[in-house]
Structure prediction request, 514 residues.
Amino acid sequence: MNALGHLKDRIAIVGVGNTAYGNFPDIDDYGLGARAFRTALEDCGLDKAKVDGLLTCRVPYYARMGEILGLNPRWTIQLPPHGRMSGMAIIEAAAALDAGLCDYAALIYANIGRSRRVNYGGDESPGIWDPWGFTSPGAAHALMFQRHSALYGTTTRQLAEVSVAFRHHACLNPAAVMKQPITIDDHESARFITEPLRLLDYCLINDGAVCIIMTTKERARDLKKKPVMISGIGAREAYSTASISNFDLNFWYDEMQDVAAQSYGMAGVGPSDVDALMCYDNFSPTVLFSLEGLGFCKQGEAGSFVEGGTLKLGGKLPTNTDGGHLSNSYMQGWALNIEAVRQIRGECGARQVKDAEVVQYCGATPCSRSIIYTPG
Amino acid sequence: MQQATPAKPRPRIDTLSRGFWENAKQKKLSVQRCDDCAHIHFPGSPVCPNCLSEAQQWVPVSGKGEVLSWVRFHRAYWDGFRADLPYMVALVRLEEGPLLMSSVVNAGEGGPKIGGACEVVFEEVDDEITLPKFRMTD
Prediction:
């Protein structure tokens, strides 16, 4: 049990909302955030006036967001626009609610990268390796996958299983951006972006927003839907090679082992109890790294673990049932967390995991996180 | 008339990195070493990440290392690299410990051998910039 053990089943996600996902040049991030907020409020039936906590992520200015929504909360946090922030945000909000810094927290994430043609490399994000031509988070994942292949023999056909499974789920999700089924051969013949990674290993870049409303267990009882509890959390950063952004020489294995021990220990479950996994997937290799770090398989064995549709609905470990970043929507972990909530509520229609009771969010990143969700 | 080639990105030379680039011009590869605890690291840091001392200098290293991984860019994030596509970048661990992203000048189509030994070579870009690159020695 970690030091946060008293937080087990104490804080609930009570409302979730998202916009449509796509290319929306005529609306800005505030407009998208407002839509998601309104949808999340309707989802839980909470009176807007009760929202006294505001967390924003990838929204330019938290106070303008508050002005637009008519909120003057007593707790505010703005987080930078990094994907790793979603799990961090939910944990921060849980701690703030537990401490009484607010009673009802609205967490709002908005992204207009698609319509603004965000590139994720080159002069947009200058770094010290630019003179050698090294840039972009995708290249860091390519570097890790190449090393994983050299150390453990992991193949790109095994890696393809990740993209193929998530696309299969996207085809079952009416809200998903990508709805054309793909095969392992499609993955293998897609164009290289940064070799060994190909187009289908890269996440989508689309516009959209997500809102999550959280409160304490006691307050959750008065709201419209059955609460989804935060039963376990785990956290560990890896900053010692931060100058190579989005990179870890050992695939965040030690950090994810730590995160697994913290979150499974707190929730009193293990990998075999997980009914569905929502795994941060900015690039497909990180899914393999997460599976190893969390202990679903041994280090170096994720390639064979995912073979034969393990991650597909009906497989051993249904993962990213909404289609993930690779095929549903580029909501940087936020959409995965609301998918976890919807799975536990049984709201997922054709992509529903039967009797989903333990659903885990995880992200293997320089700020690795795990959250275990269970029914309230 | 000759067409102007788009420039490649240049290193940012500031108080912190100046020593590294001045040494490179002299064909010396260097890393930062703490005067107080001898911790070595790259890139340069305003304080020693181990003991937080500000007394640090750029000291030459052997230039020998090991290729830990590599990638090949098929997309130009800068116009200056478009003519080089596809081009390779490798991750090198110096025998003294620090990691560097750099280029391998003599790798074939199949890429450098991961775990293979390499040593530094220098490419003079212009009067100001000399880029440390690596050559496989295995």
Notes: Chain A has one domain: 5-116+204-375. The mean pLDDT of chain A is 96.
